[in-house]
C-alpha cells in the first residue's frame, strides 16, 4: 500500500460523503469574502430604482436613505441566500463528485487563506 492509498483515498471518500456540507462551506466562504461587493451593488441598484420612482418626493427619498441597508439585508436573506443554496444543489455538488475532490478543497482553502491574508484583511485594517 502506498501513502496515497492510506491517506488520500479515505479523505477523498469522506469528503465525497459530505458533498452538500462541503458545497455550502465553499459557497459561504465566497459569500463572506465578497458580501461587501454584493451589498454595494444591490444598494446602488436599489437607490437608482428608488430615485427614479420617487424623484420628486424628497421626504420618501430621505426615509429610503435611512432604511436602504436594512431593505438590502432583507432582500439578501430572503432571496440571495436561498438562490445560492439552490445553485449549490444543482450545479456545484455534481461538479464536486470526483476523485480529485481533496485537491480541489485544498486549493480552494489555500487560495481563500491567501485572499484573506493579502486582500481581505488589508481592507479590515483601513
Give an overview of the whole structure:
By secondary structure, the protein is an all-alpha fold. Helix 2 (19-53) runs antiparallel to helix 3 and helix 2 packs across helix 4 (101-125). The termini are far apart. The longest helix is centred in the middle third of the chain and has 39 residues, at 58-96. It contains four helices and no strands. The relative contact order is 0.13.
Topology:
Layout: H1 3-17, H2 19-53, H3 58-96, H4 101-125
Helix content: over 70%
Gyration radius, in Å: 21 Å
DSSP strand count: 0
Find the structural class using helix and strand composition: mainly alpha
Biggest pleated sheet: none
How far apart, in Å, are the first and last alpha carbons? 52 Å
Number of helices: 4
Order of helices and strands: HHHH
Low-confidence stretches: none
| β-sheet strand percentage | under 5%
Question: What value does the average pLDDT take?
Answer: 80
* Apparent shape: elongated
Q: Which key phrases capture this entry?
A:
elongated, 126 residues, mainly alpha
What can be said about this structure in brief?
The protein is an all-alpha fold. The chain is built from 4 helices and no strands.
Amino acid at each position: 500500500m502506498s501513502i496515497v492509498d492510506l491517506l488520500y483515498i479515505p479523505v477523498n471518500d469522506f469528503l465525497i460523503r459530505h458533498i452538500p456540507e462541503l458545497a455550502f462551506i465553499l459557497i459561504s466562504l465566497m459569500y463572506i469574502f465578497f458580501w461587501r461587493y454584493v451589498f454595494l451593488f444591490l444598494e446602488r441598484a436599489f437607490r437608482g430604482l428608488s430615485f427614479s420612482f420617487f424623484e420628486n418626493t424628497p421626504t420618501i427619498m430621505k426615509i429610503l436613505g435611512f432604511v436602504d441597508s436594512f431593505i438590502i439585508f432583507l432582500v439578501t436573506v430572503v432571496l440571495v441566500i436561498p438562490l445560492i443554496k439552490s445553485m449549490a444543489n444543482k450545479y456545484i455538488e455534481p461538479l464536486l463528485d470526483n476523485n480529485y475532490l481533496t485537491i480541489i478543497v485544498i486549493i480552494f482553502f489555500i487560495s481563500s487563506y491567501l485572499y484573506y491574508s493579502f486582500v481581505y484583511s488589508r481592507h479590515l485594517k483601513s
